[in-house]
Structure formats: C-alpha cells, structure tokens
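Researcher: Let's try something more involved. This one mixes different molecule types, so please make sure each is placed in the same coordinate frame as the others.
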Amino acid sequence: MNRISSSFSAEFDETNQEIVLSGKMRPQSPREMTGVIDVIQRSLDGSGRIIYLNVKRLTHLNMTAFNALADLLKIACRADPLRTIKVVTSSVIPWSAPLFETLASKEPNLSVDIYDSAFYPGQTFVEDESFIPILRTQTKMTWRHERDILPRHGLRDGLAVADICCGIGDFATLIRREFNPTRLVALDHSKKSLDYARRVAAEFGLNSIEYTYGDASQMLLADGQFDFVTCRHSLQIFDRPDVLLRELYRICKPGGRVYITNEKNSHCLGEPHAESIRWTYEQVAKLFSHFDMDVEMGPKSRRLLNDAGFDDIKVESFMVTNLDGDPRDFADIIEAWENVYAGQMAVRRGDPPEFIRRFRQGFKDHVLAALHPKGYAGWPIWAASGRKPY
Amino acid sequence: MIMTGQPALFRQTAFQGMAALVLDVGFFTSQFRLCDKIAEYLGDLVAQSHDDPARYANFSASLINEVIELAFRSVHSGDRVEFNLLKGDDSVYLRVGFRCSEEQLALLRTVDRSRGSTPFPEPARDLMALAHAVGVDVHTEIDRDDHITLTLEFVLSEGPR
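Model: All components are placed in one shared frame. Result:
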C-alpha cells in the first residue's frame, strides 16, 4: 500500500508492521489527508498485536494534519484495546516527540518511542566516538588531493555550500579556510561529532559554520539553497543511496553541483604481501555488504548521479598512499579499520576466529607495506559531481 | 506554557526590530501556500542566532505556521495581517496582529482566561495545544475592539539542542 502526494507520503511495510509517514504535511483541510488516512486505516485494519507509526521523516506537520491523525489513532486504540500502537519518532525533529506524547498520554495502548538509531545501517560503527581521531587523519590525507580536485568540480570562492554527513566537521573547516563560502552549513546525525566540530571551530575562531543535527535522508534544509553540496564517504554506508541523493538534489540550486566521494575497498592495495592485502579488502567489501552497505560504490558514482537527475557529470579517482605525507598517518588509518572491521563488524556477523585471524593479517600486512622503506600502500577513492539542471 | 496578555510588555521601543511584514488579506487568503512560505521565512529569521539554526527554524516555524493559519482563517477580506519580529536580550518575539469578528474575538479572549488548562477554546485551540506541547509562551492582546495581536516568545537558550 502506498500513497504519494506532492509533499507527503504514507507507506505500509507489512513485514515490519510499520506505517511510514514522511515529508511536509501541512494541508489546508483534512480532505487533503484522505489518501494518507486511507493507507493508515487499511494498515491498521490488517495489523497484528503491535503496529508502528514511524514519523521520523515527517519534517513538517500542521495541526490540521495532526488532528486528523490523532482522531484516527484514538478510534483505533479504543476499537482494539489489546493492540499496541507505537509512534516512532526521533530527536531530529524538535516538535515531534512532545506533540505525539500529548496524544499518547490519553491513550493507554498508544506510546511514543524516540528512536535515534537505524538511520543508516552502519550508524553504530560510524558514530562510535573512538573513531573520531581516525576520521581527522583520513580527512587530512584526502584533503591533499581534494583541495585540487574540488575546483575542477566547480567549487570556488563565494558560494553557498552544504557539507552533508559532515562527521566531525573537519572537511567543513577546510572548506571555510580555503574557499571562503558565503554560507556554510554542515549537517550530521551524530551529536557527539557535532559537539566536537563546534569545539574545534571555536578554537580556530571559525564562528560562521552552521552546524546542524539532522537526518541526511530527510533534511530540514529548504529547497534550492546551495550552490555546492558535498557528501563524502557517506552514500556508501546508506542502504538507500538514491534517497539520500534525492535530498542532496533538492537542497542544491538549479545550476549548482553535488559532489560525492566513495570508495572501492576491494581495490585497496599494497606491496609487499599483495595477495594477503587483496584478500582482506575483498572480505571488507563482503562484510559491508552483509550490513547493507556498499563500499564498492566509487565507480558506480556516474550511474547514481545520472539516475538522480544530474547532468554534466564528472568523475575522477585518486589514490591516497603512504607517500602522501607521513606514512604513519596511513598506518594509523589502517589499524583503525582493522579494529572496527575485524574487531567489531566481523564479530557481530559471527565470523569464526580463524577467519578473523586471516582477516586481521591482511590489515597488518597493509600497515607493513605502508611503513616499509620500500613499500607502497594505496587506498582508492572516486570523486564525482553532477549539475542540477536549470 | 501559556501566558496571559501583557500589552505594556511590547512597547516596541524596548526591543530591537528585526523584520516587519504587512500582507493584504485578499491576496493572502487566496493563497494558502503562503502560510507555509511565510512561516518558513520568519522561522529562519527567528533562528538566526541559535547555535543550530536549521533545527530551531523548523521548531519555530511549526508554531509560526499555526499563528499564520489562525490569522488566515480569521481575517476579513480587505484587511491586513501585520507581522513584527522583535529581538530582546534572550528571546525573539513574533507578533502577529489582525482584525477579526466579535464572535472570534470573544472566543480568543477566553484563551487568556484558560491559562494552562486544556482543552483550549476554538479558534486558538490548535495553536495553544502545540505551544503547550513544545513549551513556548503565547501572549494574546486584544488591543482594539476588533483587533488581536498574538505574540510568540522564542527563548533562544531553550528549545531543541
């Protein structure tokens, strides 16, 4: 069951018994809600003992719409007191939980869950605070290349820029210094990362970066605001990159460009011990795939941008290597990958000790290649951008 | 939290004017989508000095939209709706003034008398319910026989983080 209107939608996921509302729901009259009400009503009619109403991606709601939803939920609660209806919201949308809680306070079988996880599959790994130092080092190493690449994709002084999935905000800081944007918004879903970003920006006296807590797949930013939108190493960890690209497209001005970077992990390389390194990174790609993430996405960038409606697409690749600055930096990155991929993700997948031992060995060999006086270690990245048509 | 009207509080000289907008109702009432656009625009202005402007703009615009919709549903053809954004030390105030019928005015007067209680009277019920839920103060002033000014107080150190 599915209903799409111009600005809001309702979908029922039968497997998860979840009704998902999204978009901007501000009708002039309840009549405009007919399609959505119909989806919800039919979903409730066919539901089991628990049904979820997910409003995490409902970014705007006027009281006309809220009252229509409230009336429907009240009737459903009273018609079947043994059925539980759980409204799932998040702290991203500031008014959402308090408003639905007023309703839940009156209906014993209606509850509100504030659920800030599962926005994307790798959230628990990526938003681990221990990852922060390594993210800084990664940006330091990629910036050496991207500082020259970005102008070829249209970034120049004096543009309105958004960095979506900004993490700890270090890339935004570099953009601020190097390209002097007229406006710079940096969005992420990790409050800890944003706190860190604000602290660092304050230390450097950079007070004009607007850091915002948000869900990249349903942002609170208005349409057509930015000349240049960046989203680095993030599409590959979303299970629905098309949804994220739709949002990047939406906030970009016509004629503006969206710039993305993604990896192809199985192409990480090193000498000596090339075979061990190759095997391990092929396993990395499979491991991410197990968690619905695609770290092989880099070369698919052209297709993804094309499918999202962009034109004038540009794609290039670059290799971060141990010869870029201090090789210890690259070795630190690889060791952090080993800790997360072998130490956490493989364990969570339930891999046997023998697999994990061999898996770790490839990372250790990659570190050796990075630090060896005659060694070479590489990490390939694809940078791509597309223009939003006028 | 709901508060009663305090007309003396809003002598505009005590506050710094941020923006003023006057809309002709004839145009306004034929374009419901304007409620949305004006709410977003004013929400952006309110949120300017918050440390997360995008989220605070969404938060404030949700309330501003209800005030505008209330005005939209209340005003007479040929009238005007006046918007004033004022900045105090810790808060930004949005004042929305419009003329409305005696019956509506009588109902809106009861808002002042129903401090902190629910259910709220029509036609302000929705606005008050939302304000109550999210903890924003709404002041009402009936400043002429047929004119009301609603003021939303956004405390910038509060609200979403």
